[in-house]
Specification:
The complex is a heterodimer of chains A (481) and B (418).
Chain A: E1 3-7, H1 11-22, E2 26-30, H2 53-56, H3 60-72, E3 76-79, E4 82-90, E5 93-100, E6 109-113, E7 117-120, E8 124-126, E9 139-141, H4 142-152, E10 159-164, H5 169-178, E11 182-188, H6 192-200, H7 203-208, H8 210-225, E12 230-232, E13 234-240, E14 247-252, E15 265-268, E16 271-275, E17 278-280, H9 283-288, E18 311-313, H10 322-337, H11 345-368, E19 383-385, E20 390-391, H12 392-402, H13 407-414, H14 427-434, E21 458-459, H15 460-464
Parallel strand pairs in A: 1-2, 1-7, 2-3, 7-18, 9-16, 10-11, 10-16, 11-12
Antiparallel strand pairs in A: 4-5, 5-6, 8-17, 13-14, 14-15, 19-20
Chain B: E1 3-8, H1 12-23, E2 28-32, E3 47-48, H2 57-80, E4 94-98, H3 101-116, E5 122-125, H4 126-132, E6 142-146, E7 150-151, H5 154-167, E8 171-174, E9 178-183, E10 189-194, E11 197-206, H6 212-219, E12 226-235, E13 245-248, H7 250-255, E14 267-270, E15 276-279, H8 293-306, E16 314-325, E17 332-335, E18 342-346, H9 352-367, H10 384-387, E19 394-396, E20 403-405, H11 411-415
Parallel strand pairs in B: 1-2, 1-11, 2-8, 4-13, 11-18
Antiparallel strand pairs in B: 3-7, 4-6, 5-6, 9-10, 10-11, 12-15, 12-16, 14-15, 17-18, 19-20
Helix pairs in contact in B: 1-5, 1-9, 2-9
Classes of the chains: A alpha/beta (481), B alpha/beta (418).
The structure holds flavin-adenine dinucleotide (FAD) (2 copies).
Chain lengths: 481, 418
């Protein structure tokens, strides 16, 4: 029986696992989180059921159906708390190295999988641009704030400002409102011009993606009911406070996201939630050898197949299209990975839904994509890398002194991006600050900031305890160390 | 205006050559197809070791180079000022430990030969070793302490050498890949063709690290450099508990006969950033960049065997690079015996950072006919130990006396799997 492994149990992975199982494959679904659902359906632990779950979780019933179908399916194994920490590309496919157990626990169980087909659905995390004061306690990424709101029912503050770019600021504000926080405003960096181009130039598509429009309209109604102002063409350009956020500076932005001088105003607030877009989790796809697009998403064909035989991809690692797109792509990928026909039956329907949802993704980018003017928000003493506390001024100084604008060199001479988060937070920012294209050194030496052979930190003891697998050495007479 | 010298490769070796030549008065242009200090020199470590070298030409070069780095640390700091990223030169010393009586015998004998060659190698008891490194494993039965072992941060060091070379008039051009030779009527090399146009030069130095075979071939000659892959593990930052460069010498007893080179196995050390580096493996797999978990596991086992507390620390990163490996384990520094105008400074394998200063000085001395600090013949490109590595497909091109390789699949590229 064909063995399909799906990594990631968000909308894309859940849909893929189900479609693959329906297609007759044996399926293993892995997620590092202790529950299913991914970013979209991050929910309370089972022991604390919430009455109004459906209010916080749009399409909660879809999730329930998927989860129950997978639980009931005899050919499906769901492994929560399963961290895929590396992927080895073999001559005949991919090997996944997995550790199962509490992330900080000692002696996690090692699992090694060599599937016949692999579906990557690892999602994205939200991206935050730096601004003066962004490292103060009280500044949250929108994703983190939403996870706290949805998962823990905790509001990040009493007076909260939401800022950044993209339609997903709306559900974040909505989740905050439902935890009782007062949301002072939602500040969208994209101006009306860009928003008009992104959202209104093809109104028929918006109508086609009616589900999405309806969902967003619901969030907008929430804002209106709570009298939360939504302000396009504005950004939080600084946070202030003594050891904790006490106020923020909000300014108007021009088309390029540069602040309009004289429009700054201070607002008292005890928390800020910011998200300026998304960074796909590409580590496994890169390790597998999958081709990436210029905008650095995994390239897939109509059947969600990547450039690597035996590897499919779905969800946010292929483009930012929201949960509907992820669900549709997952269904197509799962069907294809199981060896099924994506040109017929449910996969065909899903494929059409995906095409509509992709229009939505393109509009998000057109309307809300990051523009270079944000660099003007920075001061010389603004930390760009929070782990190593490397400032904007130091990065510029080092680049000027060494004459190098290449990220690898500047990382190693300024220390930006070398800390525990391994440039997950600042890597792309650093590249944009340094400007200029990445030189292509080919293969291993391509200084892609997204390349992390170790997907997450692993205890040295866990590494040392891995089983010896002698068949692995392509060159047996060589000593491995 | 044509350059006197074109250097192909802006890694640590090319940078050291550029500085030495420019300060000796040559007009230097450094070309790199990528960015400076971003290839092998940014994918290794910065150990400046004498502890791992037995008597012989490599050790002689290493000893000179060790002084070279100490001097450079001061000169570069003076020249480039306090705001320039520090090259982090530190003579922290190395400690080679063993866990068996056999291992101890082997290490003792090796250290004896090193002492005879002028290396400071102090045998220390297990107890004293634990005084130097309190967290050593209980199984350690003895050690040799090498106070001369030092380190630099290779990327900062390469950038500093290049900045210094620029101040002496050198030009560094990145994004310029060398694709072929410029040849004079007499067959002499008169420059290079690059993706950014022709660059005429009096002499051309190949310092292209593990890609040197390919560059030599493109220019019409050959050099038997091959990639030898190494992986490094980096832990998350922590309070420093490891004070020296520590590695186990048991491997030496197991596989080496006396007098041969001690293979470096899992050098463990703290960095200024608070991380612990564990490096590095040695594999010949061409330019294959795929992760191999079994190699990481083996490195982890060796590290935990020396420092058991490390089992609880998190590894946040692994990276890999390709050492420029020579079949006789010695770098090639000097003129090409067949193609006039072509020079080499390459093949330093796992010691290119350590050997860079002496390499630059030796190359400049040979080219400009100054007095060299070491005997150049041991590193000469036409030495006997390299002759039989001449690829069969290199043939004399009629009339010019220039050798050319016709088969582009040999050497480094022939082994690449990616
Ligand atoms: C703040 C915020 C608000 C949003 N609001 C909306 C909204 O209102 N409407 C909407 O349609 N969309 C919204 N989205 C987008 C929506 O969450 C995504 O479109 C959707 O979750 C993408 O699904 P996915 O399956 O691709 O990825 P995810 O849901 O992100 O799932 C990926 C899963 O993969 C797992 N994983 C990743 N790497 C590994 C690994 N190496 N080993 C094991 N497991 C791994 C992760 O733990 C995660 O559970 C929002 C997103 C954010 C951040
Ligand atoms: C894991 C590992 C650990 C190591 N540890 C140590 C250590 O502790 N101490 C030590 O001394 N050494 C160590 N080394 C070895 C050391 O890194 C190398 O010997 C050294 O970096 C080689 O420098 P290089 O300048 O010759 O090569 P590189 O740094 O690779 O520079 C060569 C340059 O040539 C360029 N190039 C290639 N082809 C062309 C072309 N056609 N046209 C133009 N440019 C071209 C490349 O882009 C590159 O920038 C280690 C190596 C590895 C892999």
């Amino acid at each position: 029986m064909r063995h399909v492994v799906v990594v990631g149990a968000g909308p894309a992975g859940l849909a893929a696992a189900r479609a693959a199982a329906d297609g007759g494959a044996r399926v293993t679904l892995l997620d590092s989180a202790d529950g299913l659902g991914g970013q979209y359906w991050r929910h309370m632990p089972a022991e604390r059921p919430a009455e109004r779950e459906h209010l916080l979780h749009h399409r909660w019933t879809t999730f329930g159906e998927l989860r129950d179908a997978l639980a009931a399916h005899p050919a499906v194994t769901v492994v929560p708390s399963a961290q895929v920490w590396s992927l080895e590309r073999l001559e005949y496919g991919a090997r996944l190295n997995v550790l199962v157990g509490e992330p900080d626990g000692v002696g996690r169980e090692a699992l090694v999988l060599e599937p016949d087909a692999l579906v990557l659905a690892t999602g994205a995390h939200d991206r935050t641009l730096p601004f003066p004061g962004w490292q103060l306690p009280g500044v949250y990424s929108a994703g983190a704030a939403q996870a706290l709101a949805k998962g823990e029912r905790v509001a990040v503050g009493r007076r909260v400002v939401v800022a950044g770019a993209g339609p997903f600021l709306l559900p974040v504000a909505s989740s905050l409102l439902q935890t009782g926080a007062s949301v002072l405003g939602v500040h969208e960096a994209a101006g009306l011009g860009a928003l008009g181009r992104g959202w209104l130039s093809r109104p028929w598509e918006l109508a086609g993606a009616a589900g999405k429009a309806g969902e967003l309209a619901g969030y907008v109604r929430d804002l209106v009911r709570h009298r939360v102002p939504w302000r396009p063409g504005e950004a939080v350009i600084a946070a202030h406070g003594d050891g904790q956020v006490e106020a923020v500076t909000i300014a108007r932005l021009d088309e390029r996201w540069a602040r309009v001088p004289g429009t700054e105003r201070q607002v008292e607030a005890d928390a800020v939630c910011v998200s300026h877009g998304f960074t796909p989790r590409l580590e496994l796809a890169i390790a597998a050898g999958c081709a990436l697009s210029a905008s650095r998403f995994v390239v897939v064909d109509a059947a969600q197949a990547t450039s690597v035989a035996g590897v499919w991809a779905a969800g946010e690692i292929t483009g930012i299209g929201g949960a509907d797109a992820a669900l549709a792509e997952g269904a197509v990928a799962g069907t294809a990975a199981a060896g099924g026909d994506t040109g017929a039956g449910p996969a065909l329907v899903a494929g059409r839904a995906r095409t509509r949802a992709r229009g939505f993704a393109a509009r998000i980018e057109a309307a809300h994509g990051i523009r270079g003017g944000w660099v003007g928000w920075l001061r010389d003493d603004t930390a760009v890398c929070r782990c190593e506390e490397t400032t904007y001024g130091r990065i510029r100084e080092v680049a000027e002194l060494t004459g190098s604008r290449e990220t690898r060199s500047v990382k190693l001479t300024s220390r930006a991006g070398l800390g525990p988060c391994q440039a997950r937070m600042c890597g792309r920012t650093l590249q944009e600050l340094l400007g200029g294209p990445e030189p292509s050194l080919g293969t291993a030496l391509a200084p892609a900031v997204d390349r992390r052979p170790l997907v997450v930190p692993v205890r040295l003891g866990d590494l040392a305890a891995l089983p010896q697998r002698p068949q692995q050495s392509p060159n047996p007479q060589e000593n491995p160390t | 205006m044509a350059a006197d010298v074109v250097i192909v490769g802006a890694g640590i070796v090319g940078a050291a050559c550029a500085r030495a030549l420019a300060r000796a008065g040559a007009r230097v242009t450094v070309l790199d197809r990528g960015a400076a200090a971003s290839a092998t020199s940014a994918h290794g470590e910065g150990n400046l070791l004498v502890s791992d070298k037995g008597p012989g030409p490599e050790l002689e070069l290493a000893k000179v180079s060790l002084h070279g780095w100490a001097r450079l640390a001061d000169e570069l700091a003076d020249e480039l000022g306090p705001r320039f990223p520090s090259i982090e030169h530190e003579a922290k010393g190395g400690l080679v430990v063993v866990t068996s009586a056999d291992g101890l015998d082997g290490l003792r004998g090796f250290a004896e030969t090193q002492r005879a060659a002028g290396v400071e190698a102090v045998e220390v008891s297990a107890e004293r070793a634990r005084g130097l490194e309190p967290d050593l494993a209980a199984g350690v039965v003895g050690a040799v302490y090498y106070p001369q072992d030092a380190q630099v941060q290779p990327v900062a060091a390469a950038e500093a050498l290049l900045a210094s070379a620029r101040r002496a008039g050198a030009v560094v051009r990145t994004g310029a890949e060398v694709t072929g030779p410029l040849l004079g009527a007499d067959g002499r090399l008169t420059g290079v063709v690059t993706t950014q146009g022709e660059v005429p030069a009096g002499d051309v130095v190949v310092a292209a690290g593990p890609w040197s075979a390919e560059v030599a071939e493109r220019l019409g000659s050959w050099i038997p450099v091959r990639p030898r892959r190494g992986m490094v593990l980096v832990t998350t930052p922590m309070e420093q508990r490891i004070r020296h460069k520590v590695y186990d010498g048991d491997y030496f007893a197991a596989t080496q006969s006396a007098g041969a080179e001690l293979q470096t196995s899992a050098v463990i050390e703290s960095t200024r950033g608070g991380t612990v580096l564990i490096g590095s493996s040695r594999e010949q797999v061409g330019f294959d960049d795929r992760l191999r978990a079994a190699v990481l596991a083996e490195m982890a086992r060796r590290a935990v065997a020396v420092f058991p507390f490390l089992a609880r620390t998190n590894v946040m990163r692994s990276y890999l690079g390709f050492r420029p490996y020579m079949p006789d384990h010695l770098p090639a520094i000097g003129p090409d015996p067949e193609l006039d105008g072509l020079w080499f400074a390459t093949g330093h394998e796992g010691a290119g950072v350590g050997l860079a200063p002496a390499t630059g000085d030796l190359l400049a001395a040979t080219m400009l006919r100054l007095a060299p600090a070491v005997d150049p013949s041991a590193y000469a490109v036409d030495r006997p130990t390299l002759r039989n590595h001449r690829p069969a497909d290199v043939s004399d091109v009629q009339g010019t006396g220039v050798t050319r390789a016709s088969d582009t699949s040999r050497g480094a590229r022939g082994e690449a799997r990616t």
